Amino acid sequence: xxxxxxxxxxxILITPFDEAGRIDTASLESLxxxxxxxxxxxxxxxLGSEIFKFNEAERNLIAKTVVxxxxxxxxxxxxxxxxxxxxxxxxxxAAEKAGADALMVIPPHFMPASAAEIAHYYRTVDxxxxxxxxxxxxxxAPVPPGLALRLAKDCRNVSYIKVETLPITTKVSExxxxxxxxxxxxxxxxxxYFIEEMRRGAQGTMPFCSQxxxxxxxxxxxxxxxxxGARKVFDAxxxxxxxxxxxxxxxxxxxxxxxxVKLGVIKSAHVRSPTITVDPVSQREIDELLEQLVAA
Length: 296
Description:
By secondary structure, the protein is of the alpha/beta class. The chain has helices spanning 25-37, 56-70, 85-98, 115-128, 145-154, 168-179, 194-199, 212-223, 227-237, 239-245, 251-262, 280-295, and strands spanning 8-9, 43-45, 76-79, 102-105, 133-137, 158-163, 184-187, 204-205. Helix 3 links the parallel strand 3 and strand 4. It is globular, with a radius of gyration of 18 Å. The relative contact order is 0.13.
């Protein structure tokens, strides 16, 4: 890939599994093509990919499959954060070796860590790689604007941040005020506040990968100055999915995978354990919504 700044719609790929829980690489390749055909600006492998349930061989398999099948068509971002500094560095070097265009690195959050320890963690990863790093700000491990600004100035590769700490729109606004001259800001949390984030300085979003065309159209309309059109597309196609997916636990995995099965993109909606058991009422709501979406 070129060194151009990554912006726009960068969906996080779900990981398709077969019914035995093994990675289905053929379905993953189909999912990649589905998203690229929709005009996405990049693709990611991250928490939305169930990456935290992978062993190291599976991490390597996912990275190789995605990088090889994308084949330079869009940038590929791999999440390499870990509970330990050395482990995050190991994952980061492996992702770079596999051909990732950028890394998304979540702060350590299993045990409490001070700002100084988090800064050391990022500096260590930064010193060991040579591709861009995206800071990941999440509720379990917030990255305040001041720390983000310091890391961007201290680390040669830190050039993005994905904001997911609530309230997201406020955090995006604060981050843009403090650090938009040195960091490209992405929204997260499934893209639920995509339009609001763009109004406050975000340059893209990293949603789930089941509705790439709707997200790209929302982006295109907003960038063209058609905010009403962007809102119309978002409300008609995206809002109901995000609302249902946020009802509890990891229901969102089941919803997005079932939508992709319904669309014929992947073969199975299997979610690896541990995961919620979808109750009959929620499953009926998923079925009703998917019928509407596919008919539309």
